[in-house]
Structure formats: structure tokens, C-alpha cells
Amino acid sequence: MEKNTSHDHDHNHGDQSTNHNHNDCIESALATAETLCVEQGQRLTKVRRRALELIWESHRPLGAYQLLAKLAEEGFNSAPPTVYRALDFLLSAGLIHKVESMNAYLGCVHADKEHKGYFLICDDCHNVMEFDYQDIHAALIEKAAQQGFELRAETIELTGLCSACKSHPTGANV
Ligand SMILES: [Zn+2]
Ligand SMILES: [Zn+2]
Ligand SMILES: [Zn+2]
């Protein structure tokens, strides 16, 4: 995959404690989505685009019902099938990931690269960040193969404290 459509801040994007301009994240996510849809011959319909934007509003995953409520407020056809179809589309286009343990959806920071989503989930602020998976992926495939096992799903969701929460513990009121 071409690297030129990805964003420069990909590598440290995971560190959400840094005060990055999140609007830039949203903008580049939408731009990547437009490009990918053209490449894949798909249409980024209004509801798909808005769903993606709403999911990207923060680095916290958004549940289907929260999304549904927001779309309804804005006058979209928010019947569950419409919302689930939009989510399925965004998932299959690689624009979002499902965080299984939270049953919620997260915008992907490098949608233009083929990858699995492995996540670090902060117990405190509930921000979720993707982390680099190549080494782990290779190790998993190898270990599974030693058991004659063919991997299909790789759900890796680790919980803990993000760097921001570590330096400002809850209750510290900073
Ligand atoms: Zn951001
Ligand atoms: Zn991703
Ligand atoms: Zn945190």
C-alpha cells in the first residue's frame, strides 16, 4: 500500500496524552475514507460518512446505540439496520475497528494499511489506542501453527493506565 496517504503523526498518535489537534485526526480520517472508497469503488454515503465522523469524535470507542442516538438526533434514518449496515461497511472498508471487550467501535488511525487491530485500553479515561502488531502477529501465527492451528481472529485488547492517567491519577484533580 502507498504510504503517502497516511498521516505523519501515525506513529505517536497513540500517545493521546499529547495535546494533539484532534480535528486533524478527524479530517485526515475522512480524507482517507474518501480516497479508500474511490479506490474500492464504494460510495461513502452521507450516513456512512457521518457515522465515521461521530465515531472519530474522540479516541474513545462508540457503541452502536450511542451512534444510533446521535444519528437520530440529526434526523438521519437511524433504524438499527441502517446503522448496522453503515457500521458493517466501515468495518469491511477497514475504516473502523470493533473493540470486542467494549462492544464499541473505534476509528482506525491507519486505515490505508492492511493490519489487525490490537488495542491498549485505559481503565481510567477509556481512551483506546491501537498498537503496532507486526511482531506479535508473526509470533501468534508461528505459535498457532506449531499446534497445527490456523488463526482466524486475533482479538488482543489489553487494559491498563495510559500515560496521561498515570501522571494524573484519578482524584488528583489536576
Ligand atoms: Zn486524535
Ligand atoms: Zn487500525
Ligand atoms: Zn487514560
Automatic annotation (TrEMBL):
Residues 1-21 are annotated as: Disordered. It comes from the Bacteria. Residues 1-14 have a biased composition (Basic and acidic residues). InterPro entries: FUR, Fur_C, WH-like_DNA-bd_sf, WH_DNA-bd_sf. Keywords: DNA-binding, Repressor, Transcription, Transcription regulation, Zinc. Pfam families: FUR (PF01475). Belongs to the Fur family. This is Transcriptional repressor. It comes from Marinomonas colpomeniae. The lineage of its organism: Bacteria, Pseudomonadati, Pseudomonadota, Gammaproteobacteria, Oceanospirillales.
